[in-house]
Every structure is written in C-alpha cells, then in structure tokens.
C-alpha cells in the first residue's frame, strides 16, 4: 500500500480504527475522518506508535451535517493529489427520531445520506486515481430493511431498528448503483458485513445494565474489532478483488445479499432520490 492514499471514516474507533491501523502498517497514507479533533489526534498517535508509519492524519467530518461533508471533501480535494481507497465505515445505531439541520432523519444521514454525498463528491479524485476502490461498511441487518420511497427519510414511520436496517440496505443499493455507473471497473465499489463485534456501536443502548450485558455476550460469542476489520482490509488491498464490483462480502468471501439489495431498478431510483435529498440536483 506504499504510495496509496486511504480514507477511513470513523477511523478513530472500533472496526475503523483497526482497519486504519492495518492499512498504515502496510505503508498506506491513512486519513481518519472523525468528528472530534481530540479523538482524531489520539487515534493518529495510537496508529503511528503501533505501526511506525508517520503518514497518518485526521480530518474533521460530521456525517450528520452536509456542510461538514462538503468541507471535508473540499479539504481532501485541495490537500490530496490522489485517493486510492475510500472506506465508508462510520455508522451509528440508536440515534432516536431527531432531524438534522439538513432536514434529514439523523440516523439515516449518519449511516447513509452523509456517506452518499461524501462518495459523490470524492468520485472525481477516485476516478483520476484509478484503479481505486470504494468500500461501504454495511451489515447483515440490511436483510431486515424495507424499501418504501414514500418513507425514504423516515418521515412517515420509524424505529431505531428500521433506521439501522434501512440505512444498510440503502448502502448496499448505493454500492450496486456505483458499480453500474463506474462500469469500466476502474473504480470498484463493494459492500461489507464486518461481522458482529463488541464496539462503541452499542453505546446508545440507553440502560447501562442491559448495555453491559449485551457487550459481554457479544464479546464472548463473537469476534473482536481486529477480526471484524479483516474483510474491509481484504477489499482494500487484495489483488484477488481487483476489478470486482457491486458485490457484498463477509469473512473475505462474496456472500449473497438480500433480494432487495440486488434490484437494479431500486438502486437507480434510490440514487436519484438521494441526489435530491442531499441537494445535489
Ligand atoms: N460492531 C458490530 O457488531 C457491527 C456489525 C455490523 C456492522 N457494523 C458496522 O461497522 C461500522 C463500524 O462500527 P463499529 O462497530 O466499529 O462501531 P464504533 O462505534 O466503534 O465506530 C463507529 C465510528 O463511526 C463514527 N461516527 C458515528 N457517527 C458519526 C458522525 N455523525 N460523523 C462521523 N463519524 C461518525 C464514530 O465516531 C466511530 O468512529 C459501522 O458502519 C457499523 O454499522 C458493526
């Protein structure tokens, strides 16, 4: 990865931190996209110390603000000459039923609309750096998502569960549409289920007693963040996946996503509606 530039959103915590560390260890220039300067600086220091690669930086990004997404992308376009790998890893659960100042449902914006705009704005740099790769960190939870264009932004009905499942389904559809639009496969786009790992993703479980039990059970039954980062790393570095696009991976293997995730018409329509909702058209 020496000479390559990688962005990992949410690279300061959990699976993203392990992904960023692994790619820095392989010599990449790693940019962590993160909401807090304090957490960004701490992650930068941890990664440099662990890998000896000084080429690690952070830039501020709050996916719950489209202005922040635009500012982040403008900074990257100004500072970086290339972008080889974009990993849309940041995500959150249990954000409740609030609306951002962009008029979008907060959970949907953090998990999908923000990453949609970010990817859209960075496409010129990804294209000029081709062959390059986009990796969208989805979840097995996408299987429980539903596609209702009258409720794209959760304006009619919602639950934390549905927001998470739908946002991951939308990420899969964005992956499919990206691969269709970038059809020469010079820029590839793939989705990942990282597997279940006890990370801060569970921090919004409001009752601390239940949160602690869930974390302990997940820790006991499943994997750690390092293991959960392996499929993202595989998609970022492996020659085996060069030119492969529009696929869904887990455990470093292609897996079949839900039927809805494979519907090209839904993917096209969602892209057009997303452009409108993030004020691109
Ligand atoms: N941990 C699991 O069991 C699991 C399972 C399936 C999918 N995932 C997915 O893996 C990805 C990484 O999650 P994790 O488990 O490492 O959790 P985590 O909470 O440790 O990491 C999530 C990252 O996203 C960032 N983030 C949250 N809101 C943001 C915002 N508004 N703007 C910018 N960044 C923001 C956080 O700061 C953090 O760095 C997420 O997309 C998550 O949905 C996790």
From TrEMBL:
Pfam families: adh_short. GO terms for molecular function: oxidoreductase activity. Coiled coil: none annotated. The keyword Hydrolase does not apply. The keyword Glycoprotein does not apply. It comes from the Eukaryota. Keywords: Oxidoreductase. Belongs to the short-chain dehydrogenases/reductases (SDR) family. This is Retinol dehydrogenase 13. It comes from Papilio machaon (Old World swallowtail butterfly).
